[in-house]
């Protein structure tokens, strides 16, 4: 479950509500492509913008449509008591795993983060993936803290942010973290532009935003890398450089949601205010980039 | 209302709920001291850890106990639709003003932040204070963006983070911002250790965490500074340096909540998990510091 491609679908949402039909279509694409794990309600799935009831409803839709592929969902919230409630919801709704980031308002200390994971993992009966995402949480895990948390019961994977684009530095980073965590805890890379480098450096999983929309493209990169064909994985990732450039400039969420709109998979707007869609010029550029990408994906929308 | 001392009381909260009786006691202290504005449910008031119903309940308690002193409350939330609902609640509950920070999960662009304030201010019938708090929001306002937002209807103050401790740099910073905003919009300094410098540099208000607990001490500094007695304001602030040092090390919330516990005004624990109380050695140090401070405050707890 925590090896290979974990695909994080969008949750299309705007001021009128959640587009459930479009969400299910996105899940069906992931099922058809055969991803290894569906990451419903990750950052790309807008979990932070939805309330508890909405998160439960979306998770149920994901589990119901997943056809046996395991579903992981975020249980992150600012308050521990809410995290515990979300963990209960996730387990009752049939999630196979949960993802937890130390989101905060007041900056958290290492001990507060450790205690959060300690309290949550002690009440879980399904595996947990530690979500290290300083871009949204502004919490910076030390490798030593990762090592302590990885020893807690039910911890089975760590979703790390992008690695260095230099292969030697990436190798050193993954090797150092690996030595500090139990062998049964996998390391998954996120930050899609860094995925091939991260997988080639020894990450077992790719936690992917693009994979939630274009799973076949991302599965090809993942499988080449995990089969030891580093050059081929790099080559395919390099082909996506125009897209990675947009990710770096506008953030993956805005780019992937615009790509889904352009592809006709979801209607616009698909982000909750105050988030605004990609600007028009970036969108035109994205349209051009997508022509190549779409031709390599088997579309499986129920709409045609 | 947006001049002088705005005092931000704690909202004592732990896993068993909100301590409403202790909260009212804190409000009564502010009323007795005669602060210029009560900032209920600011960052010090743990707004980010409370749900909409809890925020409404606490705001009502504050308004009910304020004896005519205006009450401002935070309406900050990650999603615009929730901000609008909180603004409605605030107005119905009798708040005199609202405080809005651009809190976010995905990093916001300048245009997204401007549009948030544009949408919210257009629906308000009470004044708004812009809450610039990069320590918790991680959004960095440019002075130019402040200038644009300050022109929006109902904007009447900007709560800025700490200024430079160098008086000349602080003067330059405030003068620059002042030129970009309408004359009826005040500038208030926060970051208590910088308050005297900020007031001496021309800020009209001090948005104060310490003022929520020790209003008399903070009123003295504020009045000296606003009366042109800069040296006296600096002298009183410098006397508090041991406290400011703890603020810098542990964050003002943890220190002020421990101070309120030590003073017998609230019971422990008074912070919501995952936030943990001040560690024991810092607490012992704080006890020592507080002996001086408490002797200068007229306690007005209903408990004696």
Fold and architecture overview:
Chains A, B: Its EC number is 4.3.3.7. Chains A, B: Belongs to the DapA family. 2 copies of one chain form a homodimer. Chain A is α/β, with parallel strands linked by helices and 304 residues long. Chain A has one domain: TIM Barrel. In chain A, 48% of the residues lie in helices and 12% in strands. The radius of gyration of chain A is 18 Å and the shape is globular. Chain A binds chain B through residues 15, 43, 48-49, 78-81, 102-109, 111-113, 115-116, 119, 135-136, 138, 251, 253, 272-276, and chain B through 15, 43, 48-49, 78-81, 102-109, 111-113, 115-116, 119, 135-136, 138, 251, 253, 272-276.
